């Protein structure tokens, strides 16, 4: 998988060289490259933002600089719209398929463009699983009041797969942290990323019955007078499985009832339904 990230603070992503993501890069499973959006500016101040149309506080990221950058990363011919003054050129005025085909051929695999945005749908484990199948992800980090809304719309209009995701109901200063979160959730699902592939099979939000995980313990079984649940040292695997499943169900009902509501009840047995 190839990951390109566009940011005005590309240094944020130096951490991608650490830990398991760093090892995955060494193994050639994934490449992560952070680009400085300001490299696509033409003015002396390298400005990427302007005041909001309609007024209001703060600054908004300009579409022209983003488009020059994204066209380059996608291997698309520049629309030439800004230079010719034809800034309103719509996708229908251009070949719908040509840019997508170029993007497919140019950089290996159909790219997915992802913009973090607090006012977008929440990024979930299922999104991470789906995106882990992609060959090429391009993340665009917003800053200030965010990016001009036409940027994702433009590339959608070009037939590209464009996503906008929030990582939670709060507002960060920029998209860098959100991209780090999404990138890690996606990359760890790549085959070969985890030393033990079984570690990602039975996790919170994962699998056919996506619940919160049961609680985990390690040795010593008695620590500061606190015992681990005795069933876990019984050696009876069926009982351990039952205990863990019951605990997952109980914790999920209490902490995240919304997940229980979405559960397919046909997958539960009589024992579960009685709870
Ligand atoms: N004016 C925007 C609003 O009220 O929705 C907030 C913009 S925020 C200060 C700047 C950038 O940070 C956003 O464009 C986005 O890229 C990123 N960001 C902030 N919070 C986020 C969140 N919860 N999830 C994903 N991205 C976020």
Automatic annotation (TrEMBL):
Write out the annotated subcellular location: Cytoplasm
Q: What's the EC number here?
A: 2.1.1.228
UniProt lists the family membership as follows: Belongs to the RNA methyltransferase TrmD family.
Signal peptide span:
none
Name the residues that bind S-adenosyl-L-methionine. 142, 167-172
Its GO CC terms are: cytosol
- What GO molecular function terms would the record report? tRNA (guanine(37)-N1)-methyltransferase activity
Q: Which reaction does it catalyse?
A: guanosine(37) in tRNA + S-adenosyl-L-methionine = N(1)-methylguanosine(37) in tRNA + S-adenosyl-L-homocysteine + H(+)
What name does the UniProt record give this protein? tRNA (guanine-N(1)-)-methyltransferase
Matching entries from PANTHER family are given as:
TRNA (GUANINE-N(1)-)-METHYLTRANSFERASE
Fetch the InterPro entries from UniProt: Alpha/beta_knot_MTases, tRNA_m1G_MeTrfase_C_sf, tRNA_m1G_MeTrfase_TrmD, tRNA_m1G_MTases_N, tRNA_MeTrfase_TRMD/TRM10
GO process terms (BP) = tRNA N1-guanine methylation
Q: What does this protein do?
A: Specifically methylates guanosine-37 in various tRNAs.
Enzyme category, top tier: transferase
The residues covered by the tRNA methyltransferase TRMD/TRM10-type domain are 1-73, 110-261
What Pfam families has UniProt attached to this entry? Answer: tRNA_m1G_MT
- Quick one: which gene encodes this? trmD
* Alphabetized UniProt keyword annotations: Cytoplasm, Methyltransferase, S-adenosyl-L-methionine, Transferase, tRNA processing
Quaternary structure and interacting proteins, as annotated: Homodimer.
């Amino acid at each position: 998988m190839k990951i390109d990230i566009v940011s005005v603070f590309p240094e944020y992503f130096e951490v991608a060289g650490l830990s398991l993501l760093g090892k995955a890069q060494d193994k050639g499973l994934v490449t992560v490259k952070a680009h400085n959006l300001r490299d696509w500016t033409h003015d002396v101040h390298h400005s990427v933002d302007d005041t909001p149309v309609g007024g209001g506080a703060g600054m908004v990221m300009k579409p022209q600089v983003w488009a020059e950058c994204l066209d380059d990363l996608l291997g698309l011919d520049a629309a030439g719209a800004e230079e010719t003054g034809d800034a309103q050129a719509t996708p229908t005025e251009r070949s719908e398929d040509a840019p997508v085909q170029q993007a497919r051929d140019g950089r290996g695999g159909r790219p997915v463009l992802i913009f973090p945005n607090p006012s977008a749908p929440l990024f979930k484990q299922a999104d991470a699983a789906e995106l882990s199948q992609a060959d090429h992800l391009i993340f665009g980090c917003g800053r200030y009041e965010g990016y001009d809304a036409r940027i994702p719309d433009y590339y959608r209009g070009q037939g590209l797969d464009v996503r906008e995701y929030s990582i939670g109901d709060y507002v960060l200063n920029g998209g860098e942290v959100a991209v780090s979160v999404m990138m890690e959730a996606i990359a760890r699902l790549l085959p070969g990323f985890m030393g033990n592939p079984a570690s990602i099979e039975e996790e919170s939000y994962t699998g056919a019955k996506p619940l919160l995980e049961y609680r985990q313990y390690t040795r010593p079984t008695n620590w500061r007078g606190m015992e681990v649940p005795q069933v876990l040292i019984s050696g009876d695997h069926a009982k351990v499985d039952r205990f863990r499943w019951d605990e997952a169900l109980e914790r999920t009902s209490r902490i995240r009832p919304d997940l229980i509501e979405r559960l397919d009840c046909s997958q539960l047995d009589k024992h579960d339904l009685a709870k």
